[in-house]
Structure formats: C-alpha cells, structure tokens
Write a structure and sequence with these properties.
The chain is α/β, with parallel strands linked by helices and about 220 residues long. It has ten helices and seven strands. It has a single domain (about 5-210), classed as 3-Layer(aba) Sandwich (Rossmann fold). The strands form two sheets. The protein has a five-stranded parallel beta sheet. Strands 3-4 form a two-stranded antiparallel ribbon. Helix 1 crosses helix 9, helix 2 crosses helix 4 and helix 7 crosses helix 8. Bound molecules: 2'-deoxycytidine-5'-monophosphate.
Length: about 220
C-alpha cells in the first residue's frame, strides 16, 4: 500500500492537483471530503440539522468506496454533494468527534489493496500518519474564492467575491479550530502554495517531490 496524502483548505486547488496526479501516475484517487458531504446530505434529506446527527443515524448509512468512487447506500450521490449548503453541512458534521471516528475505517479500508492519492484535511496527520508522501496545498483566500466562483455548482447565483471569501473564512475557521483532527499541516508534509500557478506547474511541483519509483509510473 502506498499513500500520497494531500491536505489543505477548501478551494486551494487540492482536488484538481490530486486528481491529476492520480491520473498521471495511474493511482486510485480518493476524495475524503465526499464522506463528510454524504453524511451532511443524508442528514438534510432526513430533516436532521448537521449538529444533531447521532451515532444511531450514522449506523443507518452505508458508505463505501468502489473504484475510488463514493457510494451512499449503494448509490452515487452525484452533484447533490457539491452544493454550497452541503459543503457547509459537511464542515459542521466533520466537527463531531464520533463522525470522524466512524469515517476513519472507511478511509483506511479504501487503501487496503491499492496505491492511492487521498485528499482531505487530516490524511497526513490522522488517517495515514505514515503515508509515504505528504503535501499541504493552499492558496491565497482571494484566489480560492475566485476558483470557487468558477465552479458554479458550489455557489449560489447571487454570490459575490466578498460573500464567497466570507464563506471560505467561516469554513477555514471551523475546520482549523475544531478539537478533533483539525486542518493543519503535518510536520513532514511538503508545503505547496498554488496561488498564480497553472495546474501543470502544480502537478510538476508535486511530482518533483515523489520518490523515483513513483515518478517512473508517469505516463504523460
Ligand atoms: O474537501 P471538501 O470541501 O469536500 O470537504 C468538505 C468538508 O468536510 C470540509 O469543510 C471539512 C470536512 N473534511 C474533513 O473534516 N476532513 C477531511 N479529511 C475531508 C473533509
């Protein structure tokens, strides 16, 4: 098992970088934010506020990765995971320690057989502290908000750069200050600032830090 852990705040270019790295190296890509988003989505569908999710409610859900894709009760939740409401709900449920505890084995099991690129907030610190390669990817808040604005499904139609920056600040603050597994850079993670950099530049930078046997898997 080989794990490349990519952590960082929302909109830092983490998903794009992780997906592309997985593609170029022919590794499985696992997005762990989807798990928290799926819990938030299921709660909303059941009429439960994120803070009121219980252990019993979690027991009613079936969450699993198949070929790197997250299934909620056997189905791909699709675009419903990507709304701004689901994102804030995910950040809120992710602050509940028993939710994190419940999702830990789901994430570890995703890496049982495969070489994976796993992205999230606590992959290098908590989920795979022994990951072979760790990155902490971030960007300026303005750039992150601009990228968010470009992903229209994630923002409401009346959103402005200011309002999106505010949403990001709220989520950063909550994700970084929660008591359990807060968003923070692992001591041994490589820090990558993607501000003003192209996807190709970020990709080349990530690859330059990988061990030769992983670099050798590069296909294009
Ligand atoms: O990466 P994302 O935007 O899909 O994540 C949604 C929320 O889920 C994020 O605000 C915090 C939470 N999260 C987490 O706490 N730990 C992870 N490994 C991934 C996401």
């Amino acid at each position: 098992m080989t794990v490349i852990a990519i952590d960082g705040p929302a909109g830092a270019g983490k998903s794009t970088a992780a997906k592309q790295l997985a593609e170029v190296l022919a590794l499985t890509y696992v997005n762990t934010g989807s798990l928290y988003r799926a819990v938030a989505l299921a709660a909303r569908r059941a009429g439960i506020a994120p803070e009121n999710v219980t252990r019993e409610f979690l027991q009613t859900l079936r969450l699993e990765y198949r070929d790197g894709k997250l299934l909620l009760n056997g189905e791909d939740p699709g675009d419903a995971l990507r709304s701004a409401e689901t994102a804030q709900g995910a950040s809120r449920v992710s602050a509940l320690p028993f939710v994190r505890e419940y999702l830990l084995p789901v994430q570890r099991n995703a890496a049982l057989r495969e070489w994976i690129v796993m992205e999230g907030r606590d992959i290098g610190t908590v989920i795979f502290p022994d990951a072979q390669c760790k990155f902490f990817v971030t960007a300026s808040i303005e750039e992150r908000a601009r990228r968010r604005m470009a992903q229209t499904s994630e923002i409401s139609s009346d959103a402005t750069l200011e309002s999106v920056m505010e949403e990001i600040r709220i989520r950063d603050e909550r994700d970084s200050t929660r008591a359990t597994a807060p968003l923070k850079q692992a001591d041994d993670a490589v820090f990558i600032d993607t501000t003003g950099k192209s996807i190709a530049d970020v990709n080349a930078e990530l690859i330059s830090y990988l061990p030769p046997e992983l670099q050798a898997r590069r296909s294009h």
